[in-house]
Amino acid sequence: MLFSKIIKITLYIFGALVVLMGGVLIWAYQYRDEAFQYILKEANQNINGKLTAEDFGFTPFAHGIGVSFSLFDVHLQDTAYAQHHVELLSIQQLTIQIDAKSLFKKEFQVKSVCFKEGKATVFVDKNGYSNLSIFRSRNSSSNNKKRDPGALNKILGNLKDVCLQNVSFALENVPKNQRIALKAEDLTNYIHLKDTLWEMELKGKVHFDELAFNKKRGAFLKNKPTELDMNMTFSSETAFLRVFPSKVKVYDDTFELKGSFDLAPKGHARLEIKTDTIHAARALTIVPKRLADKISQFKILPVVTATVRMDAQLFQRADPFVSIDFQTKAFNYESPIGPMMNVTATGHFTNQANPALPTSDQNSQISAKHVTGFFYGSIPLNTFFTVTNFDEPFLSMEGNFKAGLSQLNGLFDDNHFRLNAGKATISYCYNGKMNPIFNEKT
Predict the structure, then answer these.
(1) For residue 418, what are the CA distances in angstroms to 95, 132, 422?
(2) Spatial distance between the Cα atoms of 232 and 37, rounded to a whole number of angstroms
(3) Which of 16, 393, 400, 426 has an alpha carbon within 20 to 30 A of 2's alpha carbon?
(4) Which element (helix H / strand E) includes 273?
(5) Amino acid 3: pLDDT
(6) How many whole angstroms separate alpha carbon 181 and alpha carbon 299?
(7) What is the pTM of this model?
(8) pLDDT in tens, 223-271
(9) What gap in Å lies between CA 274 and CA 248, rounded to an integer?
């Protein structure tokens, strides 16, 4: 008897679920076209442009208790599209998952959004016009529906994640000579909204084409595949994005990243990047080639631990400020006057040695202190040097060699003489052009 009752109750519950699911399915298909038109209408009433979609798909009970709507062949154009012919957004599929309970109230509470196969292009032309004007408020004298300040929060307040699959992004600022281009190959942003603060966890693969704050000076992350694991917050009120300690993997090298992006009209991007045990030659491939070439000309590229700090004006035509602190691992160096073995150094680079002057090659400086090693593998050396003006490098250097005389025997032919006791100390300094410091002929 008890078992029979359990079976009956189970069947009742199952039957009720079937009826409920069938009811939701019938309701959703009944309002399918209405929902499609509602989405387009609401979007177009709140933008200065045009949103179109070729087709509309519907999937009930997607990812659990929810309903997914997919817009296919989606295009977003600003009002000046006929003149510049650049779409702000062109996506093959835009899928929006809606909370099922909100549908019964004829409301749309978005749970997740996914963009697949397409591109987004933001530009500022030579006259200062940007296609982002599509999001500016419409003329208050128009007859269009006024925006409800809480409408966006009502729709997106329960948003949990945004994913991008094979979506390219480009930002081209012609007056500032800036370009940012990347492709989100498989990227998901997990989101939690607290009032006006968006807490975000960004994970996935992104291929950077370039990150150029001034194209004439070169680009960061030129043609670099990356994996992101980032924690951030974004304030919609202040347009301020904060990046908490996060990890970015470039090829096989992992970097720690933190900083902020102030998206105000005179905003800055301020970043601090740390790396532990990376070969300098690989590290330099991340910075602009012009800067990397300037540093590489000194032909000292050991394995290093480094901290890079960058401050870039986002909407101004200026070179980003770059500061690098580094500590080398032990390395060998073939100097013009002989081999130096087991060399270690602590150093610093900046492209704004004089804070009163703008960032430039002329205002760049690299300094190394606590440089120690062994000349010819046996003579202890200590030195300090500074190189300024990377266009015409100027070197200031001082140091010393200190050794017992018996340590010097390896430098001479012991068939002629041998040093048995005593000490040798050589102190030196040099101030002048870096090339040539030493001329083998003279």
Answers:
(1) 84, 80, 12
(2) 35
(3) 16
(4) strand 268-279
(5) 43
(6) 31
(7) 0.71
(8) 889 999 999 998 878 888 999 999 998 887 888 999 998 877 778 889 9
(9) 10
